Amino acid sequence: IGYLAATAAGSPALDLVSRNHPHVVKPKFPPEGDVWYNIPEFNLLERNITVPGFSPLFPDAHCTKDGSVCQVVTGESGPYYLVRQHLALKINAASTITALTFSPLFDLQKTYFMIAGIAGISPKVATLGSVTFARYAIQVALQYEFDAREIPENFTTGPTEYPKSIYGTEVFEVNDALRQLAIGFAKTATLNDSSDAMAYRANYASTSAYTAGSRPPSVVACDVATSDVYFSGTLLGEAFENTTKLFTNGTGEYCTTAQEDNATLEALLRGAIYNLTDFSRIIVLRTASDFDRPYTGEPSTVNLFYANQGGFEPAIQNIYLAGVKVVEGILNEWESTFKKGVKPNNYIGDIFGSLGGAPDFGPGSEFNNNPVIPSSRKRVRSLMAKRAMAGVQATTSE
Questions:
Q1: Is the dihedral of CA 352, 356, 358, 359 positive or negative?
Q2: Separation of alpha carbons 115 and 11, rounded Å
Q3: How do residues 317-354 score in pLDDT, each as one tens digit?
Q4: CB atoms within 10 A of CB 337
Q5: Entry pTM
Q6: Closest by Cα among 278, 58, 255 to 138
Q7: Of the candidates 111, 184, 176, 187, which has an alpha carbon nearest to the alpha carbon of residue 341?
Q8: In terms of CB atoms within 10 Å, which of 42, 144, 184, 306 comes out highest?
Q9: Alpha carbon 87 to chain centroid distance?
């Protein structure tokens, strides 16, 4: 069984589970990674593997002695509690996961990946400390922008029609059947909470639209928005709710705010094109550390910069408390369910249809519903095998 936990300083955790293949958990900044250490289920610090292409600040994958569970830190720039340098986060995430995916040191073909980190949360859908599992990851900030003080009075916040220029990373859709199994595992966890979070979320009870935000933490199925900007406020929150609906053709439900997920998913998808990863084996988990907008009567600046929301510590703890249930569920049911894979009941992949099938969002497949089959795929795998045989070895410390 393999589990590789990819830890990125300042971003989510990527978890994989498979027999004879690593299971990867990918947190992105130290607290998200540290929560997986000194736990009773397994020891991630028994073996350290240096991987070419990883962040110079976090050059190793940390694994159990038998290599069944590992963790990778992708790296972050900027303080996570204020304005994160999200472009740097995306670059770090894409660079590290690309290095992981194409490394000859790992066989990831049957690996389960769990992207697991903290996020902002919409009080319309869930609350501080909640654990969310996404079907869609939407890159909501791919928009034209000018200073808000110059917006004409008749303009809306956010797009009103589908983009005419498609980059390919706007939307990713993962395996909903696998997501439902993960939700079932996570619901067996007892979630953490704090007195400060209880007190702060009570302020949202006076607004009927924010009823979910005033309730205790729970496990929720809803979708993640990624952005290069750490945004906050009611208008932007509502704009990205609308963007999520627009980009997913009305199917997605915006709830969490993140930075790196689309970059991570693009790297994994490119690996899947070369049969190096299995895109049907990805889980996107986010826990809620802060509200994406203020309660009624609270200034947006206070919500963003000054309020003691009390959600950070429960969110960190709940990555582990809920995430480890998912990891254990996959491992315990490997032979009966997960070894052969969980067949998707929905489209999976990107907006281009790169893995085949017809996307249920966007303008349709760029490849006539056929998968991309690069002519160099066999050559790449052959080259990687030769490199491994030639002695490309991990630096290992026991």
A1: negative
A2: 9
A3: 999 999 999 989 988 898 899 999 999 999 999 999 99
A4: 14
A5: 0.87
A6: 255
A7: 111
A8: 42
A9: 15
